[in-house]
Amino acid sequence: MIPHFFTLMTRPDQAWTEIRRDEERNSSNYILHLFLWALLPAVCMFIGTRYTGWSLVEGERVWLDTPSAAQLSVLIYVTIIIGTFIMGFFLRWMSRTFEARPTYNQCVGFIAYIITPFFLAGLGALYPSRWMAITVLVAAGIYSTYLLFVGLPKFMRIDNRNTFLYGACTWGVGLLVLVNLKVPMILFWTLALDPTYERDTVQNQSYGFEENRPQEEPGGVDSERRFNERPNE
Q1: Alpha helices, DSSP H only, in the chain?
Q2: Which positions, given as ranges, span the membrane (predicted)?
Q3: Residues 102-122: pLDDT tens digits?
Q4: Which of 76, 45, 56, 80 lies closest to 186, judged by CA?
Q5: Of the ranges 42-56, 93-107, 116-130, 132-146, which one carries the lowest mean pLDDT score?
Q6: Which of 82, 88, 87, 83 lies closest to 104, judged by CA?
Q7: Using one digit for the tens of pLDDT, what is the confidence trace for 192-207?
Q8: Packing angle between helix 130-151 and helix 104-114, nearest 10 degrees?
Q9: Cβ-count burial of 127 within 10 angstroms (0-12 exposed, 13-18 middle, 19+ buried)?
Q10: Which of 110, 145, 196, 227 is least crowded, fewest Cβ atoms below 10 Å from its Cβ?
Q11: Domain locations in the chain?
């Protein structure tokens, strides 16, 4: 699995030829790659949400407690696995239109290798930030798209003329699967599991605590003012 990872990142055209050859020998060759690499975003999410935290308001840091962070990480891991198998089903179903005859395991393996950049993008979860998430996800999406269009003719062995349409259909179905899995997962985690947040608010006031506020002293300016306002006897 490690050689496929490095060749996918450096020479994807050669990687797809090697992956197809390995899949023909053992159609479940992708299992280790999928189950191990899917741990990366889940573990990074746990570390980022539990120990690093995020900030939506200046002067405030938010964390999840340990059970809530663990629940979120497990749900992310399970969602990745389920989503990959669902995409494998749709990829095989669409292959009939483009005169390809891959097995179901080969389709799942193809998806597992395509989303490898998204596994690496999970490193961004170590520092939860809006701009960090946008940057790593856009970069992962671009390279995954490149892997998809390079891999379709080599792995699926379809005509180059059908590559664009097959790839576009795969992307469209992928977005639908992502939305229909991620949204219920987040709602279930938020509403059913009831996560616990921990906040660290920095005091940004002139006087942070009541006991530090200056108290009115006897005989001060207020007392003198009240004395001057008394009517003359």
Answers
A1: 2-10, 12-25, 31-37, 39-47, 66-95, 104-114, 116-121, 130-151, 163-187, 221-228
A2: 30-49, 69-91, 103-125, 131-152, 164-189
A3: 889 989 999 999 999 999 999
A4: 76
A5: 93-107
A6: 88
A7: 988 999 887 654 444 4
A8: 140
A9: middle
A10: 227
A11: 2-203
